[in-house]
Automatic annotation (TrEMBL):
This is peptide-methionine (R)-S-oxide reductase. Keywords: Oxidoreductase. It catalyses: L-methionyl-[protein] + [thioredoxin]-disulfide + H2O = L-methionyl-(R)-S-oxide-[protein] + [thioredoxin]-dithiol. GO terms for molecular function: peptide-methionine (R)-S-oxide reductase activity. Its EC number is 1.8.4.12. It is an enzyme of class 1 (oxidoreductase). Residues 26-148 form the MsrB domain. It comes from the Bacteria.
């Protein structure tokens, strides 16, 4: 189970090794993703709160990256955080996501990215439920829900 100290260490020193890598040109990403997906996943924008596909969805399944299909989060780790975006307590595996310091908009945050294709997913915060205490606040535009 990951905790905040693990997230900080990954962001500061070294992220887990991905099980594979996928790299595309900007032109290839624009062809693969919808304009909204591209804005969020590649340009690091944020979708509107509460008006997104998975904010209020709690159906069983796995959530995969829109860019490469890698499994990122399990619905069993999803919870209602009242943040406006889908919230999870843990990624599906330690190496599913990677972390980076993000000081944009005059805020200090930890960005969460797909560890395979570097799609921006959202941010992680240390105010989630125990036992891990993490809240992964993820944009729906970056996710595809797969039925179990």
């Amino acid at each position: 189970m990951l905790r905040w100290i693990d997230v900080i260490k990954f962001a500061k020193y070294s992220n887990p090794e991905p099980y594979r890598r996928l790299e595309k040109t900007d032109k290839e990403w624009k062809l693969k993703l919808t304009p909204e997906q591209y804005k969020v996943a590649r340009q690091k924008e944020t979708e509107p709160p509460y008006r997104n596909a998975y904010c209020r969805s709690y159906e069983p399944g796995l959530y995969a990256c829109v860019g490469c299909g890698s499994h990122l989060f399990n619905s069993t780790e999803k919870y209602h955080a009242i943040s406006g975006w889908p919230s999870f307590t843990q990624p599906v595996t330690k190496g599913a996501v990677k972390y980076a310091f993000d000081d944009s908009f005059k805020m200090s945050r930890i960005e969460v990215l797909c560890n395979v294709c570097d799609c921006h997913l959202g941010h992680v915060f240390p105010d989630g439920p125990e036992p891990g205490g993490l809240r992964y606040c993820i944009n729906s535009e970056c996710l595809i829900r797969l039925d179990e």
